[in-house]
């Protein structure tokens, strides 16, 4: 009878371990799914991408496609954040690239700023470049204080 009791005890420990492991696993899955849900925000995606995710040591650069199919790339100088989407604008500074159908090439127009209305933009992609040097287009930029207005 001693062997049967040991076997029963071992099986009980294994079953208990499996049950506890499954409960812990389920709790972790529930916790992870709640913490990874999208958060509702009272600020626009523009503000989140161009200000809140931008570090003090970086400057946001965008690639955006306009309704006429042009693809613009440039450094973000400013944007109107608190207006309705249809009234917003984004201001880009050099270096510029311009293209159509994904064929963007450097574009040296001599312009210092390009203002694009939000209702002309189909999509916008953002990258953050190091703010290590002053640009020719904006010599007053201080890399140590590169916050946008």
Give a short summary of the structure:
The chain is α+β, with helices and mostly antiparallel strands and 149 residues long.
Written account of the structure:
The chain is 28% helix and 32% strand. The chain is an alpha+beta fold and 149 residues long. It folds into two domains: 1-37; 45-135, SH3 type barrels. Strands 1, 2, 3, 4, 5 and 6 form a six-stranded antiparallel beta sheet that branches. The protein is elongated. The relative contact order is 0.17.
Tally of domains: 2
**With helices defined by DSSP (H or I, 4 residues minimum), what is the helix count?**
2
- Categorize the overall geometry: elongated
Number of strands: 6
- The secondary-structure element order is HHEEEEEE
Cα(first) to Cα(last) distance is 82 Å
Strand content: 25-35%
Q: What is the gyration radius calculated from CA atoms?
A: 27 Å
- The name of the CATH topology of the largest domain is SH3 type barrels
